[in-house]
Amino acid sequence: MTRTRPTTHDTAHRHTRRRVAALGAAVAVAALPGLAVAPSAQAASCAVTWGSLAKTSAPLATGRVAGVRAGHHACYDRLVVDMTGRAPGYDVRYVGTVRAEGSGKPVPVAGGARLAVGIHKGATSVPAMPSVAGDPTFRQVRWAGSFEGYTTLALGVRARLPFRVFTLPGTTAGTSRLVVDVAHHW
Q: Could you tell me the pTM of the whole model?
């Protein structure tokens, strides 16, 4: 008896059938109301490579801190600092104690870990701090002061988790945003 090797067409067809079957199963599961995604599937979709080391950018920019807001997404909690002027430099890092700008006094903040969010931009008034009650990762946001063109926020988080920092143009001309995302899990 002679064995014949499957042709490329047969192999490709078999692989396509497997992919379609897997995709169909995933769509069927996702379509069921009230059915939670398996933890391994959720972890795979929330995989991050951000790390927990300090994130910095150097430029000092004119303008002022105008507001602070927070929200949460499926895989991370987000802190947004709205500012006038172009995007500033920043220094965001985990610290043992967040220190107030100018005085150096400790700024207590709830949570198992503390991020000092340093913004290379001043503020003429203290914006309202957002409530983060119920957020999976954030525990508290506190004002740590503004002095000589530098502003610091104390961000209390559940644990030392990976985070990323980036800047964006604002929604109106002459504004910008600093964004800090902290992942829910490693």
A: 0.76
